[in-house]
Design a protein that fits this description.
By secondary structure, this protein is α/β, with parallel strands linked by helices. The protein has one domain (about 25-285): TIM Barrel. The chain has ten helices and ten strands. It has helices at about 5-10, 40-45, 50-60, 75-90, 110-130, 145-165, 185-195, 210-220, 245-250, 270-285, and strands at about 30-35, 65-70, 95-100, 130-135, 170-175, 200-205, 220-225, 230, 240, 255-260. It has an eight-stranded parallel β-barrel with strand order 1-2-3-4-5-6-7-10, surrounded by seven helices. A two-stranded antiparallel ribbon has the order 8-9. Strand 6 (about 200-205), helix 8 and strand 7 form a beta-alpha-beta unit. Helix 5 (about 110-130) packs parallel to helix 6 and helix 7 packs parallel to helix 8 (about 210-220). The longest helix has 22 residues, at about 145-165. It starts with a helix and ends with a helix. Mean pLDDT is about 90; it is low at about 1-20.
């Protein structure tokens, strides 16, 4: 059967990817990555460059990079294209960038500015070859209700998704406090947007209570997954994250994509991150196809 005939024979709607659907069935397919935010101190002080992250990925046998854009020296071709070339020549995928967004702005003018800025970052992602952008919902503004803020976030994310779809870029809404503190609200926003170009950037270290059930709720919608060296327990104490427990759940969901290390613990990341990446690579192989 020809492809066109096959697609026309599908029940209505099945030829279009649902935002709730995992990419395919079968075993998980896990790849490892470094979040640039892990080196925020060195990048902010210009003691480290984004080129250095590419070389670090090679040295630690890591597949990809999630590049937090906060310390980009610019967004012109003179910066983006040499970085893209360096990554390609070293077999490293710049698969994601992370940008600042506050989608819960109370006025239409402010939300329009958020949409415009997001469009600009989508263009940057496309130029770098990144298929994903990590975005944030924002706080509930003073005088507004959480329901209102969720509606504003969905409005901004929808307009971002419409543009992202034309550029082939997926937007991942992170569970990051504020309006995205709880899985139920995150999924409500994602479902209201109702786009195959929007999902959840699942930070497995950000939920503060009922952690594993909330992670499991988000997994069918996950388009990127982050892990932490440490998390805070119910008493507020820092404890090591149980990667076998968390990544085991990720794998059972059939997730196919990146596991990105976002390092926020006290030890110097230049000494701590390499050993953590070695361990992450082992666990990814353990649970992956």
């Amino acid at each position: 059967m020809q492809r066109r005939s096959f697609l026309s024979a599908l029940p209505l709607g099945l030829a279009v990817l649902s935002p709730a659907a995992p990419p395919s069935g079968g075993r998980a397919r896990l790849r490892t990555a470094i979040c640039a935010y892990s080196f925020r101190g060195a990048l902010g002080k210009k003691q480290m460059t984004y080129d250095d992250l590419v070389h670090m990925a090679v040295e630690n046998n890591v597949d990809g990079l999630d590049l937090t854009v906060y310390w980009f020296p610019g967004t012109g071709d003179d910066f983006l294209l040499p970085l893209k070339r360096l990554a390609y020549r070293n077999g490293v995928e710049i698969y994601s960038i992370s940008v600042r967004t506050e989608m819960t702005r109370a006025t239409g003018q402010e939300r329009a500015k958020e949409v415009s800025d997001l469009h600009d970052w989508i263009d940057v992602a496309q130029k770098l070859g990144a298929g994903h952008i990590r975005v944030f919902g924002g706080k509930v503004p003073k005088g507004a209700t959480e329901d209102q803020a969720a509606g504003w976030a969905a409005e901004v994310l929808k307009q971002g998704a419409d543009y992202a779809a034309r550029k082939g870029v997926i937007l991942g809404l992170e569970n990051h406090g504020g309006i995205t503190e709880k899985a139920e609200r995150i999924l409500e926003i994602v479902k209201r947007v109702d786009s195959p170009w929007v999902g959840v950037n699942l930070d497995t270290g950000n939920f503060r209570a009922n952690v594993m059930p909330q992670i499991e709720m988000c997994l069918p919608y996950a388009v990127n997954v982050q892990v932490k060296a440490e998390i805070r327990d119910d008493s507020g104490q820092r404890v090591p994250q149980d990667w076998d427990k968390v990544i085991g759940a990720v794998a059972r969901s059939g997730y196919k994509g990146y596991l990105a290390l976002e390092y926020e613990a006290r030890e110097d990341p230049k000494t701590a991150v390499p050993s953590l990446l070695e361990r992450l690579n082992r666990i990814a192989r353990k649970y992956s196809a």
